[in-house]
Amino acid sequence: MCNEETLGLIEREFDLYKYHTREEMNGKKRNGWIRTMFYSAIQHLVRQDPVYYALNVAAQPDLNWRLVSYPYYTKDTSAGENTGFKHLDLNVPELLAEGRGENIIQSSVSIDDEYEDGCTIVVPGFQRNICEWWVRVEARGMTANGPTTGVAKTYTKDDERVFGAFIPTPCRRGGIRITRPEILHGSTPYCRTRRRTILPCFIAVSEDHHSLENSKCESWAELSACHREMEAPKRSTSGFGFAYGGPGFRFPATVQLASSSALGDAIVCGRRWDDPLVLGELKILLGACEKNAMHYVESCRRRLVENYITAAKAVFEIERVTYGNRSFSRRDSLPDAHACEDDTYSTLGLSDYSCDGASRGD
User: Fold this and answer.
1) Which strands make up the sheet holding 149-150, listed edge to edge?
2) Which tens digits make up the pLDDT trace of 326-361?
3) One domain, residues 116 and 176
4) What pLDDT band is residue 298 in, cutting at 50, 70 and 90?
5) Which domain holds residue 130?
6) Are residues 210 and 99 in the same domain?
7) Residue 341 falls inside a structural domain
8) Taxonomically, which superkingdom (predicted)?
9) What proportions of the chain, in percent to the nearest 5, are helix, strand and coil?
10) Co-location of 64 and 147 in the same domain
C-alpha cells in the first residue's frame, strides 16, 4: 500500500531528523544512530503494523501476545561511518539463573537494501551454545554482570572455531530481521552506503499491566505516558540507560499518528490488552480464518498509510514554522556539511542530551 508519495515522505522524514542530529554528543560520535528520532510518523506506522506484530508474537518462545513497543531510536548510517559492535542485549548470569530476558525478541525493519559489508551480523544457532560458552568465559575470568554483555573481547577466535563466527545478514528494502535474544549480534564495522533501520522493540507486559518482561524497565503506566507525551524513556528493553543519555526535550515537530486500530493502540500502550475491542481484533488477526485476517490486515494498513501521510505532512509544516530559516523543510535536502556541525542549524538552543542512567554499547 506504500505508493510513491508515501515512500517520498519516508525519505524526507529520515532526512529531516538527520538534519537536526549532531555528529557528536557529549564528546562521542553518533555511530550511525539518530538519537532524537523516537516518535517519527514512520516509527508510529511500523510499530502498529498488524503483520509485523503477529510475526513477533509467533517468534515469542512463550507465544505471549500482550506485546508493547518500547520506544527506541533509529539507525541512519552515513557511508563510511563507524558502526561496529558485538554484544547481547542481556545480562547473561541473570538469563542463565532466572531466564530474565529470554523472551525479548530482537527485531528491526530495513529502509534500504543492505549489503554484506554494511548490515547486522549474528552467530546463527548461538542460543544452543550460550551456556557452554559462558562456562568458558567464567574459566577465563572475563565475566561481566551488566544489563548488556559486550563480547568484542570475550568471544575469542577459539570460541568462533567451536561455536561459529559472526556472519553478515543483509536485508532487502522493507525486509525484517527477527532473532532470539540469546543470539550474539552486532553490526559490521563500516557501511559503504546509507543504511536506515527502525527498531520497534516489542516487549511483553504482565496480565495486570503493572510491569514488563524486564522488571528493570519502565512500568506499563510509565511507558504509556512516554508514548502519549512522545518523550523518550529513561531506559531501553535491557533495563539500561541510553549510551548518550535520553533527549533532554521532545522534538518540536513530533506528531501523534491518529488511531488506526484498537490493536495498534494497545501496541503503543494507548489501550490495555484486556480491552474488549482489542481482544476482538486480536481474535480476527490470530484466528483460524485466513480470509478474515487478511481483510483485517488490509483495512488496518490502509488506515495506517492514510494516517501516516497526514501526520508526516504535519511534521514538515510544524518543523518549517518552528525553525524558520533554519528548518530542513525550507532546504528540503541534507546539506553537504552536516547541519549539526554548524550552530546555524542547531535546534533552537535546546540541549543535546541529558545523561540520565548508565551508558550502553548501542
Assistant:
1) 149-150, 85-88, 185-187, 120-122, 167-168
2) 999 888 666 653 444 443 333 333 333 333 333 333
3) yes
4) very high
5) 80-197
6) no
7) no
8) Eukaryota
9) 35, 15, 50
10) no
